Amino acid sequence: MYSADGFELAMHRVGRKTTADSRAAPVLIMHLEFLNGDSWFQFTDAADRLLPMLLVDAGFDVWIGHERATYWSHGHLDLETTDTRYWDWTWDDHAHYDVPVYLDFINNVTASSVHYIGLSESATAGAATATMLQNSLLIRSLTLIGPTIYIGDTNSIVMAAWAFIFGDIIDEGNYENGYQSGSFNFSTCSRFT
């Protein structure tokens, strides 16, 4: 899959339990900025406490999206990752170009509107996407976890530490520097690009 501005976008379908109702409601889960969709699987060893697995166990059809310029979604039709134009985008581009592609794809596969769960920047992008009429028809519900609204001009010690520790990742992109977040084995899932 590609966004209208040329970014490769990938998703993994985690799966669903086999039930008498084969039309399980689809859920798209989007991750925190600077990470990958695998981040939903890395913070505990207890699979029964992982959000995607809880949703699968509850009977949902779970899809994990990977934002542009991350490990699973790092390609572009025209730009190399060494080109500064590759990195010239904001959450607004994610909302305008990327989220609609995920929603359309899932809707085409499942013929159903999608429950959207977003964390931080992805929560903000999901909310912005839902304000566009053509996209709002594809969204069944929004769950916005810690939406990022504004972080500029902050005196936060936490944000200063974040920038100091992860500056090279933020400045040059986690994929190019060999950083790969998460440890989930996505080879067991269906990949869509």
TrEMBL record:
Q: Which SUPFAM superfamilies match?
A: alpha/beta-Hydrolases (SSF53474)
Q: Which Gene3D superfamilies match?
A: alpha/beta hydrolase (3.40.50.1820)
InterPro entries, sorted? AB_hydrolase_fold
Matching PANTHER family: LYSOSOMAL ACID LIPASE-RELATED
Protein name listed in UniProt: Triacylglycerol lipase
